[in-house]
Structures are given as structure tokens and as C-alpha cells.
Design goal:
The chain has seven helices and five strands, in the order H-H-E-H-H-E-H-E-E-E-H-H. The chain is α+β, with helices and mostly antiparallel strands. The protein has a single domain, classed as Beta Polymerase, domain 2 (2-Layer Sandwich), CATH 3.30.460. A hairpin with a 4-residue loop joins strand 4 and strand 5. It is flat and about 70 Å long. This is GTP pyrophosphokinase family protein. InterPro entries: GTP_Pyrophosphokinase, NT_sf, RelA_SpoT. It comes from Enterocloster alcoholdehydrogenati.
Amino acid sequence: MNINLSPNSELHQSIVRVPDLVQVPDIWLDQARQFQQVMMHYTCAIREVKTKLEVLNDELSVKNQRNPIEMIKSRVKKPLSIVEKLQRRGLEVSLESMVKNLDDVAGVRIICSFVDDIYEVAEMLVRQDDVRVIAVKDYIKNPKPNGYRSYHMIIEVPVFFTDSKQFIRVEVQIRTIAMDFWASLDHELKYKKSFFDTDGEISGELKQCADVIAQTDEKMLEIRKRIEAQGVEVRRD
């Protein structure tokens, strides 16, 4: 069934504008249930990925006396963001189009202490035989022009339901604390700076900040390795 997700669609009207006491057509209810079910699938896929990461982190905390993962964040893309992204790409705004064309409806962000932790965590995750790697973009080795750095993967993980097993796509972003700090502030300023940054001065300063942060990440990793070279383990209590 082709389910229209656009703000002017009947499904949107039935969910947002129709009072509780008004009789809602069955077809609208059916479409709403289908949308809810698909979004539940993405939520379950996030849970699967987070469990894998938590198990790996717990193992390494015992094995190496150090947790490479500082924090795990997750989100399911909001309906309005889904609609806007499909429209930007000139794609049909429907449930089927979302599932087929969008790889980042489900997202997991992993925050690590050091740059080498990023690659270690990524390698451990994709080594698992039930994880399918769809795409990888290394914005650490190849930063975006604005200075953005992060390691991105699109993966598929199996989710077991009562009557089926489905592979669901999840976008995984892995970055250091410093990278996450910069990206969060840049995102917060994204729309504001478009009104005031006509000469590109603010963008240039943000790019300089990103470069400084990257240099700090490299220096912190170098210091950790120097300490470890003396036979002292760097651990997080």
C-alpha cells in the first residue's frame, strides 16, 4: 500500500487534526498503524545495535581495563524530517519511499575517547557475522569542507519478530568527544549563521575551530601512547 506521509495527506490529517471523538476512516487508521509498525522496527534495530556495542564495551573494560566508548546516543528520525529529506531529493513522499531510499531513519552515535578507539569499535562491530555493511564514509581522514569530522557507517542488523526476521538499516556515527562537541555547536548555529554569515567569516572561524579540535585529538592520542609506551595502562575508573 502506498502511504502518503506529506503534511497535506489524509494520514497526516487523521493523526494531527481530527478530534478524538470524530469517526476516523478505517483506511486512515490502517495507514497510521503501518507507519507506527515500521517506525517500531527502526527502534528495535537501534536496540540491537546498542546491545552489541554495550557488550563489546563491557568486554573491553574487563579485558583491557579501559572503555573505548564514552557514550551511546540514538534517535529515530522525526516524520517532518523524513518528509523534508524526501522532498529535497525529489522523491515520492510515502512509507515505501522512506524505507527504500533513506538509510538514516534509525541512527546511533558512538562517542569515543580517542581517535584510534573509533576505528577499533567500527572494526569490532562489522566483524560480527550478522552485521551487513552497506556503506562507509570516513570524514576523519577526509573531513567535509566545513571541518566536520566523524566516521559514518550504514549497516543492516537482523531483528527477530514473532513471525519473521528482518534486516533493518541503521546509520552509525562514531566520533570523539571533541568532534561531537564541535558538531553539536555547528548544528545549533547552522540556521542562524546563514542569516549573518554573508561574507563567510563565521564559517571560516568554525572551520579553524574544527582544525584546532582535530589537532587536539591527535595530540591527546600521542600523549596516551607515550604513557602506554612506559608500561603504564591508561584506564578510566
